Structures are given as C-alpha cells and as structure tokens.
Amino acid sequence: MSEPRRDDAEVPPPPWGRSRRRVAPVRVPLTLERIVDAAYVVLDREGYEGLSMRQVAAELGVAVSALYAHVEGKDELLERMYSRLFDGQEIPDPDPERWQEQVREFANDGRARLLAHRDMARISMAHVPFTPDLLPHVERMLAIFRSGGLPDQVAATAGDIISTFIEGFTFEQSMWEERHRTAEAHTWQEMQAGIKGYFDALPPERFPNLLALADMMFGGTYDARFELGVEIIIRGLASYIEPGHPAVQSGDAGGGHENAGRASDGDAGPHEADRPAEDAGGVTGG
Fold first, then answer.
1. Which part of the chain engages DNA, per the record (predicted)?
2. CA 253/CA 47 separation, integer angstroms
C-alpha cells in the first residue's frame, strides 16, 4: 500500500530561481598616482586651505592610514603635486638667435600650468625644482640663458627671477579672482568703476601721478600685463649681453616683443575675473 501524498513536502527551487552569489567589486589598487590625482581634485574643489590627507582619503574612499604607505605626510604630497606640474613640459634645445622667444614660451607655459589648478601658484612658491626628476629642466633653462650671451652671474639668477614673477603674478591673479567671487560687485567692470571713482576723487595736487596713470594701472587684461612684465624682465637681462656676442648681432638681444607695452589694451582690468577660463591660460622653476 502506497504512502499518502504529502503536499507540504519541500520542493526544491528551480535552477533559474536560485540566488546567485554576489560578485565583489574589483578593488583598484591604491597607487601614488591615484593619490596625487585625488589631491588635485580636492585642491580644485576646496582650495589650498581645504586640502588635507583626510580629504584626499575620503575622495579615494580609503582610510587615511592607507595614504601613508605611499607618502610620509602632507608635505610630501604637496611636493609630489608640484613635481606633477612639470609632466609633459619640454624645454627646447638652446637657440642663441631665439633665446628671448624661448624664455617667453617658458613663462607662458609656466603660467598656464599654474592656472590649470586652483591655488597651485601658492604650492609652487614653497618648492624648488632641485630634485632628480626636475634638475634636467633647470639645466636646459640655464643652457638657454648662456647661449643667449648672458654673463654667468646673470644667467645663474635669471631663472629664479622669472619664476618668482610667474608665481607671484599668478598668485595675485588667483587672489583677486577669489575676492571677486565674494565681492558685492558682480563683474570686474563694476569693481573697476568703484576703484576709478575713488581715484578720481583724490586731490590732483597731491596725487598727480596716480591720477595720470590710474587707467593704465587698472586697465588691460591679465594676459597683456603678464606679457609686459615678462618683456621688462627679458629686456633687462638682454642689457647685460656684451655687444660682440652673436645673439646681439642676430638682433635678439635688444629687440622687443610685438605685444610689448600693450598692457592697457582692452577694457578688462588687471583683475578681470570675468575672463573665460580657457583664456586664463599658467610652471616654473622657483
């Protein structure tokens, strides 16, 4: 006699209904490159004051302690960020007939690199390119200066002078742009009008030069003012070249750049924070 049918007997689930084992997400290894990438993200978002090891770790989704397997601390992280600025920078072979133009190209490239990231000029000002990876950049710049006929004492100082100008100019630009973001005036034209109104009210018998030069002091674009500053430095360096040097004979020792002296071009002042980002082109060997 057969046993009675049990409707409550356990029925195995069908194959297509079985729960599948969850596949753990692939963990991307933490590397120095990823840490520096994350540090730049934090810098652009929070600025220099907001950059911290904790913020970088949060950006990467790791514990702060994990960062210390790759960097000793924030100081080394800043140094790594500074070194990253020079990635892809190619300083050409020295050309005595083009040494001035090569210096201009170096200055413009340096400024563009600094402006690519918020507050990067502030970080750059605290570092020098005297590391094994960056010394070749310094060597090639010195070669350009000497090929142009600069006396050794001048050539030895020229790089630091130019780099200090690039970093200082860019740092000032970033400060004014930050101030503009928090100012009551919404455009540079409004800020410019306020400044001009103040200068116009000064007694001319006490401030004749300020009144005469006010429009030029606060006129022109960042780019035009930067180019003029670089040109002033280059002409000063060129004045030290001995008359008989080939660079002088080729006409590159005292010649001016075609845009020199045009700092007053345009109507967007030296702190024209309304200039499009792509036009705010900035490193340097501080």
1. 52-71
2. 41
